[in-house]
Design a protein that fits this description.
This protein is mainly alpha-helical and about 200 residues long. The protein folds into three domains: about 5-55, Arc Repressor Mutant, subunit A (Orthogonal Bundle); about 65-130; about 130-170, no CATH class. The protein is built from nine helices and two strands; from the N terminus they run H-H-H-H-H-H-E-H-H-H-E.
């Protein structure tokens, strides 16, 4: 039997599927020869021939969540990420605990969120970019002047007093924003997320 010319380009999973097809009639290549020809483990090929699915296609046995709950979490995390509100690992734990509480189950373990992100190929944890670097980039007066002009015009238009304008830094709303934390994002994201 001759190997397909693009064997190097195939993923391991695709090579296994091709090898299983060569074992079954009409080709009926021996199991050992098919494993050698397609460069796949013989034991894996034997299991797949009997109908067992790959680990990637099955839900992990040790997972404390149901598959639909995992899919809902992934969807929600990716949705938040597209809106530039990537959740922290702690937020992912809270979401999972809410789903489990709705079922009447115990809370998840302390390392569940990081293991979940590692297990799911669609997610990745990354450190956020500090906002302080953005402030440095905007230190040019010509860049920030239009913002102050807009504030001045809005105050004049609506007859706002200086006492009615609050600086969030003074009231403590941005405490901890400059710290770097791990956020959960979609794996296809190319830039560092900005912490919120």
């Amino acid at each position: 039997m001759s190997q397909p010319p693009n064997l190097e380009e195939l993923s391991k999973e695709e090579r296994i599927k091709e090898a299983v097809q060569t074992i079954t009639p009409p080709q009926e290549l021996s199991l050992l020869r098919a494993a050698a020809a397609y460069n796949v483990p013989e034991t894996t090929l034997r299991r797949r021939r009997t109908g067992k699915m790959s680990q990637r296609d099955t839900h992990p046995r040790l997972s404390s969540h149901q598959k639909t709950e995992d899919e809902a979490l992934i969807y929600y995390i990716k949705n938040l990420d597209t809106q530039r509100f990537a959740p922290t690992l702690r937020s992912v734990e809270d979401m999972a605990n809410q789903l489990r509480a709705a079922r009447g189950d115990k809370p998840i373990g302390p390392r569940w969120a990081s293991n979940f992100v590692k297990r799911e190929g669609e997610l990745k944890s990354r450190l956020n970019r500090q906002r302080n670097s953005q402030i440095v980039l905007c230190s040019d007066p010509e860049v920030i002047r239009p913002w102050f002009d807009l504030v001045r015009n809005v105050k004049a238009k609506y007859s706002m007093l200086d006492e009615d304008i609050y600086n969030f830094d003074e009231t403590g709303f941005t405490i901890g924003v400059g710290n770097r934390v791990k956020l959960v994002t979609a794996s296809e994201r190319r830039t560092e997320p900005i912490g919120v």
